[in-house]
Amino acid sequence: IFPANSGNKEITWMMLEAGAETDVVNSVGRTAAQMAAFVGQHDCVTVINNFFPRERLDYYTKPQGLDKEPRLPVKLAGPLHKIITTTNMHPVKIVLLVKENPLLAEVEALQKCYRVLDLICEKCMKQKDMNEVLAMKMHYISCIFQKCITFLKEREDKLDGFIKSLLKGRDKDGFPVYQEKLIRESIRKFPYCEATLLQQLVRSIAPVEI
Q1: Which of 2, 7, 56, 133 suits a disulfide with 41, CB 3.0-4.6 Å?
Q2: pLDDT tens digits, residue range 7-50?
Q3: Which PANTHER family is this protein grouped with (predicted)?
């Protein structure tokens, strides 16, 4: 809790990588993220909320149960982990991270990755200490990956075309309608209707016209 309260993002990240638990509470029943938020250290809150241990992803690089092949090729684990742990959730940023890595920017690779993200999302929702924020993040990235696949399959300009679509503003005011619709679609497709976070998002967005 002390690194988070101090506002030092680097030390907070190092503590997390060393195995610090994010859901442990102090004597007043508060987690490190809650205490950091209380004292205004929002950068540290962002680091904690976006942290995902590499070993949790590496689990999918080994065959499980009756599977003969792992769900995720080892070569994709590093690039996927980089995207999972990014704190910049803008869809263009995520597509750029895909585009800059030739291993990821292929239909088959993205199919494997989004299926793993869906499994992680499910696990986040069904584990004892439910993590709705992480579940929603995994689902959101999965939706962007699936849209990347559509552009790779159907458009000659591929991911460049996707980025242009996300950035293009409508004529009257420059508002990025395609980007807005993508984000709303990802929220609508979130498979766990009972999630408090989902209900909050829907209540906030529903009355707002595009």
Answers
A1: 7
A2: 667 777 677 777 777 666 777 777 777 777 777 777 777 777 77
A3: ANKYRIN REPEAT AND MYND DOMAIN-CONTAINING PROTEIN 2
117, 139 Cβ separation under 8 angstroms: yes
Last residue of a domain, one of 35, 50, 65: 50
Rounded Cα distance between 115 and 111, Å, is 6
Please identify, among 10, 32, 50, the residue that sits at the C-terminal boundary of a domain. Answer: 50
Rounded CA-CA distance 109/89 in Å is 21
Nearest Cα to Cα of residue 135 among 189, 62, 179 = 189
Q: Alpha-carbon distance 17 to 15, whole Å? A: 5
One-letter amino acid for residue 169 of the chain: G
- CB distance 192 to 135 below 8 Å: yes
Q: How many domains does the chain have?
A: 2
